[in-house]
Structure formats: structure tokens, C-alpha cells
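stuck on this:

***
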Amino acid sequence: MNRKFVDLKPAWQWLAKTPVLACLVTGLLITNGCSNNGGRPPVEIHGVVTFDGQPLEEASILFVSPKTGESASSNLGPGGTYKVTFGEADIGESYQVAINPLIVDLTGIPASEVKPPPPLNPKLPKKYRSRTTSNLTALVKAPGKNEFNFDLSAK
């Protein structure tokens, strides 16, 4: 059996002398190694928020990953419904949750025409406005759709 081995040393020497090609090859190797997003799949979180058993509509909901600090928020819709999406989520982590006033997009609106958003229900305790005091969490168990309903109380 005659086996021939190819000596790659001259090729690598040539590559080292060609900085542009070396950068390109290095970039491709790095990009390929990072293409799985670190195992963080996309997640949709949806559900309903109620206050003392009634749908809460004039508010927004905020989710924050305690691991990365990434956040997503949405205004509550009819019936207290919401949906937020994380392009890369932390599966198995409990996201911290806060309930805040409506999010209003003021892009392109002259200052003279800006109207303040409706206030939060005055009976809703202020503790819900902060993710660190609300005691609301959502344990994201799987990629894809996750449902979390929150029933807030005046007590």
C-alpha cells in the first residue's frame, strides 16, 4: 500500500502571507462556530392580565430575563390579552414581570399634540410597576409558545 500525504505547510504559509484571505477564513470559522445563537431559541409569551378578577386593559406588561437583562414589553389588549416575543430566550429561567402604564409611540407627533396616556388603575398597588417588587414571574419552560396569566390583587 502506497499512501501519499499532502503537505499543507506551503498552503498555510501562503495564507499567512495573504492578510485579506486570512481574515476572511478566520471570519468564516468564527461565524460558523457562533451560528447556533448559543442554544437560545425564540419564544412567544402570551396570556391575560386581570385585576381583582376583571381584565386589565389600560396598561402594559414587561418581561425581563434575570440572566441577560434582555426585555420585551407590550400594551395589554382587549380583555387584558398580551403577546411578547424574544428572538433568543433563556429556557428554564424565571423572567421577572412588571405592569406599567400604556406604552405610547410619540414618533413624528408634534409636542403640542401629545396627550398623556391614561393612568394606571389607581387601585392597582405600585409594587406591580417594578419587576423587583411585583413578585410576578414567568418560568419559560420550552421554545415556542408559552402562556402565563396574571391575576393582580388590590390586597
